[in-house]
Write a structure and sequence with these properties.
CATH architecture of the largest domain: 3-Layer(aba) Sandwich
Organism: Gloeophyllum trabeum (strain ATCC 11539 / FP-39264 / Madison 617) (Brown rot fungus)
CATH topology of the largest domain: Aspartate Aminotransferase, domain 2
Strand content: 5-15%
Helix content: 40-55%
Distance between the termini: 21 Å
Oligomer: single chain
Keywords: One-carbon metabolism, Pyridoxal phosphate, Transferase
Low-confidence stretches: 1-25
GO biological process, one term: glycine biosynthetic process from serine
Pfam family, one: SHMT
Cofactor: pyridoxal 5'-phosphate
Number of strands: 15
Largest sheet: 7 strands, mixed
Structural class: alpha/beta
CATH class of the largest domain: Alpha Beta
């Protein structure tokens, strides 16, 4: 289906490229019993169904435009590390304090990963430490809460409709939705309706009444930077911890293109697969000299294991280490700058079509597009874009009352930048999106109702959608796909082009 690249692709890359080959040691011997022979078979021979699904997903990524803000395209090197023999090793505990033997190289790997994490974010190891074992950002967040709080302690996070994350204490009037609201008392702060920026003054007033033990800053759908100093002031007034969840922006923070949360926070968490462009996992950074607690290293490490999870995924830690190595290189800053340039170019192009964007632009990789003035839901635009091979996600915008039918969509430029696209290319992307929205309005009228199922029915039969799909597909296939030799791609069984 595809071969791994021997070097990164660029606009001037020529083919063919030498293919990756497994060493002969992966072959069974003459004495290998039948029950072990499947251990040596390549996936394509052993399990063609799974291989076909992988082939179709590869073809989908190659044939479309990835605009989901929480996704990126990782490198060949990260994929190699993540798919390595390290997946075989179990290693509960920390380096030099494992519950299993045979971990000398796993210890070496984890120590290296921690070192690179601190280097990538320009941190003094005398003042900061990091746990690299969390399986995901949500796991990292709950481990941080477990380390900082007692059950039913109070926390404040940005409300979900205003761009916050589920793990920051989200609940509804009828139900506590996530563990962060089930096990702790939470109270959301919000945006200023007039500016759509964080209402720091309102947060300060709420904190005087609620008296939180923890304030969480960070978001999953907020296109502007954060005033960490203002949040630190609020926390100091109440003896509270300050935690930043920089899952979306950590790659930009590492490049020093955004404000630095480490100057003010006690704990910083992040995923590793968004703007940091690594495998899917999480990190928890902790301040060793926190004024609120002198034992955060012990508390965080024990919260990760054994409180919240078991043995770490060592193959993933290898992928994290490789991604962090890349983030330490001079080229990383150029990538981060381009991500932001592309986001701003895309925002400007959409604005030029007359569309409303939350805060009228962006400081990071993310754009929040308000469709409510068009009387159109994010669900319908997401559906049309899916049919066109443009991947986006519906998203609540500030003031939304119905989470099931959000009034906006969220866009991100990290993955497009990883496919070599620049500012001029964002104008092409914006034109595709503009045409998708205009067609959505037309199909909504044709459907004769506002129900999503009626909209989907007419969209599935629309020749105009098919025309747009072909245009997007042909344009997307002009670009490289990290880790894949696109000259060797063959259309997999089950994939149907128009």
């Amino acid at each position: 289906m595809y071969r791994l690249l021997a070097r990164p692709l660029s606009r001037t890359t020529t083919f063919p490229v030498r293919s990756f080959r497994f060493p002969r040691a992966t072959m069974a011997t003459a004495n290998t019993p039948d029950f072990n022979k499947p251990l040596y078979a390549p996936l394509r021979e052993l399990d063609p169904e799974v291989q076909n699904i992988i082939d179709k997903e590869t073809w989908r990524q190659y044939s479309g435009l990835e605009l989901i803000a929480s996704e990126n395209l990782t490198s060949r090197a990260v994929m190699e590390a993540n798919g390595s023999i390290l997946t075989n090793k179990y290693s509960e505990g920390l380096p030099s304090a494992r519950y299993y033997g045979g971990n000398e190289y796993i210890d070496e790997l984890e120590v290296l990963c921690r070192k690179r994490a601190l280097e990538a974010f320009h941190l003094d190891p005398a003042k900061w430490g990091v746990n690299v074992q969390p399986y995901s950002g949500s796991t990292a967040n709950f481990a941080a809460l477990t380390a900082l709080l007692q059950p039913q302690d109070r926390l404040m996070g940005l409300g979900l409709p205003d761009g916050g994350h589920l793990t920051h204490g989200y609940y509804t009037a009828k139900k506590k939705i996530t563990a962060s609201s089930i096990y702790f008392q939470s109270f959301p702060y919000s945006l200023d309706p007039s500016t759509q920026l964080i209402d720091y003054e309102g947060l300060s007033k709420q904190a005087k009444v609620f008296k939180p033990r923890l304030v969480i800053c960070g978001a999953s759908a907020y296109p502007r930077d954060w005033d960490y100093a203002a949040l630190r002031k609020v926390c100091d007034e109440h003896g509270a911890f300050l935690m930043a969840d920089i899952a979306h922006t950590s790659g930009l923070v590492a490049a020093q293109e955004l404000n630095n949360p480490f100057e003010y926070c006690d704990v910083v968490t992040t995923t590793t697969h968004k703007t940091l462009r690594g495998p899917r996992a999480g990190l928890v950074f902790f301040r060793k000299d926190s004024a609120q607690a002198s034992d955060l290293e012990k508390r965080v490490n024990e919260a990760v294991f054994p409180a919240c999870q078991g043995g770490p995924h060592n193959n993933t830690i290898a992928g994290i280490a490789t991604a962090l190595y890349q983030a330490c290189q001079p080229t990383w800053k150029a990538y981060a700058k381009q991500v932001i340039k592309n986001a701003r170019a895309l925002a400007e192009a959409l604005s030029s079509h007359g569309y409303k964007l939350q805060t009228d632009g962006t400081d990071n990789h993310l754009i929040l597009w308000d469709l409510r003035p068009l009387k159109l839901t994010g669900s319908k635009v997401e559906k049309i874009c899916d049919l066109m091979h443009i991947t986006i996600n519906k998203n609540a915008v500030s003031g939304d009352a119905n989470a099931q039918a959000p009034g906006g969509i969220r866009l991100g430029t990290s993955a497009l930048t990883s496919r070599d696209m620049l500012e001029a290319d964002m104008k092409v992307v914006a034109d595709f999106l503009h045409r998708a929205v205009q067609l959505s309005l037309e199909l909504q009228q044709e459907a004769g109702s506002k129900l999503l199922k009626d909209f989907e029915r007419v969209a599935a039969k629309s020749e105009k959608v098919a025309v747009l799909r072909r245009e997007v597909r042909d344009w997307a296939r002009k670009w490289p796909l990290p880790g894949v030799d696109v000259s060797q791609l063959q259309k997999p069984a089950g994939w149907h082009d128009d």
